[in-house]
Amino acid sequence: MRNVCLIIAAFVFFYGTAFSQEQLPVQSIPTPEWVRVITPLDNSEVIGKKPEIKVEFTGQSVRNNLMVTFDGTDITPLLVLSDNGFQYTPVMSLPPGFHTLVLTAFDANGTQIQKTVTFRSRHSAMLEEASSNNVASVIYSQAIVTPDSSSSGAGASDFDSRIEGNLKSDNKIKQGNWEVTLSGNVRYFDQNVPVQSPVEKGMDVANWLMTGTYAKDSLRMQASIGDVQVTETSNTINLNRKGGMLQFDYNILQLKAFSIRSQQTFGIEGGLGIGDLSDDNIVGASAGIKLFENKVEFRTIYLAGEGNDSNINVVDAFGTSNQPGDKKSEVVGFLLTSDFFQNKMKTEFEADFSKFDADVSDEFGYEHDSAYLARAYGVLGGSYNYDAKYEYYGRDYNTLGNPGALKNKEGISLSQGLNVSNHNVFLALSSSNDNVDSDPLFAKIHQYAGSLNYTFNGIPNLPLGLGYQKTLQESRNEPAGTQDLNTMTDTVSANLNYSNGKILLGLSGLYSVLNDRTLNDADTTTATVTFSPTYNHPNLALTPMFSWNSSKNESTDVRTDSYTSGLNILARLFGERLTFALGGTYTVVKADNDSVDTRQINGTADISYSLKGDYVKYVNPVITLRNTYVKTTDDVNPSSDSDNYGLLLVLTGTVPFSF
Amino acid sequence: MRKKATITLLFCLIIFSYSLGLAAVNVTPSSISVAQGQAGTITLQYQFTNVLDLVGSPFTGVITSTNGTFLTTDAVLGTNPVPMPVNITGGRGMASEVLVVPVGVIERALRSGTKNFWYRRIFASAAGETAIVQMNITSESAASFNIKRIELYFDNRRAEVTVPKYFPKLKAYADIRYTGSGLLEGYWEVDGRIISRVHQMLTFGAMITLPTPDVPDLPTFAPGTHILRFVTTNQAAGLPTPALIYFVTTEEYMAKKMELVVKAPQDGSAIERSAALFQWGSFKGASLFLIQYYEDVESKPVFSAYTKKTSYVLPKQVFTNIFSSGKKYYWKVTGYNEKDNITGESAVKSFMIK
Q1: Which ranges constitute the DSSP H helices of A487-556?
Q2: How far is CA A274 from its chain centroid?
Q3: Tens digit of pLDDT for each residue in B204-238?
Q4: Residue A149 and residue A642 in contact, taking contact as beta carbons nearer than 8 Å
Q5: Which chain B residue lies closest to A190 (C-alpha atoms)?
Q6: Last residue of a domain, one of B201, B225, B252
């Protein structure tokens, strides 16, 4: 925490001392007869983001036929004109670099006369570019009516008082080939009752990223620290975690090195994510080279690490919940991609080799395995696209860089899309099996899947979509005593949307049957219908929603229906000073064997008034009355019934400041 | 050999006693499948009946199992050291246990050449009630339908995001790794309020990504910290419900771009050099306009101009070296508010100079 604050403070101090408004000494040049540019002078260097332009007419006044362009844009309508000249302050901040001011007019003889001034600008004496954009938010909530009990979490309203603050900061400095950016959010949270995880009381740096870049010609070097995104392939690593990354690009070469945490963490818990975190750390590197005019790229990736993202003993796990066990892995991957035919046929070939220990506490060590991918895809004639794939994942293939990656699967798939006039057809077919090692202890499960989706756009504002999917699964080579598997799943879906300016109507339906063709006969059906009309106007947005679902387990002959209705309203009145916002849901879940029968209404309604005016225009204070209502009725377990109303007075303030 | 026969006889006796209704403890489920190569988590429900004391009367008090044991017919695969006390009243009682089946136990069973083993708990009582659960090792595809892992994230691939007030279309995603096939039922909730329900048929032990619905949006009208969860109602036994955090700042999201309606010239019309007037409608929130002219809409503009009015006349100077007669040009206008943010934009129109 202290390190991060120091970095932010140092950055702001460095920026503050660097930034000042002044003009460097310039060389004087002869002025033409009809006009004299007072500032900026030709070939000068100006310090500032919006340097003022002052011009004096030295000959006859040309104010009636003058045109002034600045960097190619006519600014004449914005000039403050007088008989003696004009002044202009740029409406937007100027990027650092060269700028051109061109004055064009016609003299008394109708001859076009012109004056051009070129100057260079920078944001401060020390730095070419320096900017800091910040917004501070403060929220104070005081309960007027406290509900008896409420749902858990920071959003719950069973507190007497709560204060929250957030400082959002985006900073950038640039000098020559160097550029440094720092962005992040510093957060404060406190309330009079304990708070449930993953939220914690006190000050924290919710997220931050600092990036330093050096770029010159074909060379680019970048170092990032904070919440970094490491993306290679889905079989190796694709994570956004706390840590650091170095990247080096030069012409056709790219090198990357990273060190990140394996777990998702909130705030500065665990520090920077680099350094000695032997039980929660992924380190790795990748190298790439582009050949044949960038039509071919070869990459190799290596990563190693240890981690445990199970959160099994946490009430509200932050982001991830997984099976327990400290896991350890090493992965080496090779990727070859090509695009010789301008998107008509791209290819990908990937081979990955992993060592993975699913639980370092037991006597078993690494399991070695591999994964392979071969893929061809592209677009032909602008209307036909295809994607053909072969994938193999070994039984023990695994990577900490993507814990959700598949394993023990082998299969091929082909998808094709055709767009002709107002008709769009998409067909996908696949075949796969598990037990890739043909282990005699297990059966081999085969799956065949096909889906066909059709969209019709022939009626303006009324697109129609239809879909059908069929999946077959069956087991083969079952060892003695193994129950066979034979299921067929059919799914049909349809959606219809209507849009007419501010009104949008959406209707969708889905029906799915899982047919268990074994003696178990454990069939399952589910049907869902959703209707969602919306009305959007800058001062009034209405979004009601209704959804019905029915699911039936044929083996138990129990059908469960759930109804969900929602209503969202946002209304702005009296010049946007008064705002009414509502978010509410009513749900009913009922089983036909009376094992479940619950209803819940849950809503929050805010009435807000903005006190922004001439005296407080930089703070934008808003006073809000927040009503919360939760009523639960459980006819099966009446002890769960509740009926709670809460009323909060909420004061908020916004302080934007930039320099 | 004798040991194996003894254990087999013990299991037979237990199953026989269940069938006679004499067993004092019943476990649900009595049989589960666990996937090879990964730990498994399952919730077991224990129901006790006819627990008797030493004199044969219904027992009241606490009985405890000091640990659980994973075993095959001829070997102990591992031990669960977590003790389990159960309150018994009048010979009856109920308890539940979130059982983790370590991957090492599964691997030991496979290496001993079997894919079947048992989990056993013995409770210290007069009769020594014994609970047995049969476990079958399968591949992921053939295992019972179960959630193995859930990862939630926003568009930034993180479990936390900061958005301005009234931010539209905030989306979150749930990557769900599962075994077997079945119907996934769950719901998205924000601060305890259900936003939408999910009913999805899943097959073949794979991974699916579920996004939050397009309608309704995740609520962003209340500044402050909000907790978003994906709650599964029929699976994920034993796994904690993961949560996301999103913080809504007090700064309002910049309003959606409004359309600036072009009034003149008519699209595709030819205009006189002396009357090259361009006009458009406006709205509150647009105080500065940038009008841009193109030879090709995909390229940089050939000319542009700022104005605070809702019209602009091409000055005659531009006809000298920028615009040519008989050539087709495109134009559009962009509106800015007082903070220099873009608030409106027109459609791209074309014209020709006579």
Answers
A1: none
A2: 24
A3: 878 899 999 988 889 999 999 999 999 988 765 66
A4: yes
A5: B225
A6: B252
Please, what is the average pLDDT of chain B?
Answer: 86
What residues of B are in contact with residue A396 (Cβ under 8 Å)? 37
Chain A, chain B: beta-carbon pairs less than 8 Å apart: 344
Domain count of the fold of chain B: 3
| Distance, C-alpha B229 to centroid of its chain | 7
Q: Which of B243, B255, B308 is facing A77, going by the closest CB pair? A: B308
The mean pLDDT of A125-149, rounded to a whole number, is 88
Q: Are residues B220 and B151 in the same domain?
A: yes
Distance from CA of B282 to the nearest CA of A (A): 14
Same domain, B244 and B159: yes
Q: How far apart are CA A569 and CA A534, in angstroms?
A: 10
List, as ranges, residues 293-312 from B with C-beta within 8 Å of A: 301, 303-309, 312
pLDDT at A423 over 60: yes
- Of B138, B157, B174, the last residue of a domain is B138
- Interface confidence (ipTM) of the complex: 0.86
CATH number, domain containing residue B309: 2.60.40.10
Evaluate whether the domain defined by A44-126 bears CATH number 3.40.630.30: no
Q: Write out the residue range of the structural domain in which residue B186 sits.
A: 146-252
Are both B262 and B155 inside the same structural domain? Answer: no
Tell me which of 2.60.120, 2.40.160, 1.10.3110, 3.30.530 is the CATH number of domain A217-407: 2.40.160
B50 touches chain A (CB under 8 A): no
- Measured between CA atoms, the residue of chain A closest to residue B230 is A319
Closest-CA residue of chain A to B158:
A240
**B111–chain A nearest CA distance, Å:** 11
For B157, nearest residue in chain A (alpha carbons): A240
Checking if the pLDDT of B187 tops 80, the result is yes
User: What residues are paired with A101 via a beta bridge?
Assistant: A70, A117
With residue A187 as reference, give the H or E element that holds it. Answer: strand A178-191
Q: How far is CA A64 from CA A57, A77, A104, A108, B291, in A?
A: 12, 12, 11, 12, 21
| Residue of A139, A447, A568 lying closest to B250 (CB–CB) | A139
Inspect the interface and report whether the beta carbons of A104 and B240 lie closer than 8 Å. Answer: no
Distance CA A377, CA A347 (A): 6
What pLDDT score was predicted for residue B22?
47
pTM, two decimal places: 0.84
Domain boundaries defined on chain A: 44-126, 217-407
Give φ, ψ of A653 to 5 degrees. -140, 145
CB contact under 8 A, A137 and B217: no
Strands (E), A308-434: 316-318, 320-322, 327-339, 346-357, 367-380, 384-393, 409-420, 423-434
**Do residues B222 and B247 touch, judged by C-beta distance below 8 A?**
no
- The predicted pLDDT at position A536 comes to 86
- Compare A610 and B340 and report the one with higher pLDDT: A610
Whether residue A259 lies within 8 A of chain B, CB to CB, comes out as: no
The pair of structure tokens assigned to B33 is 């499948």
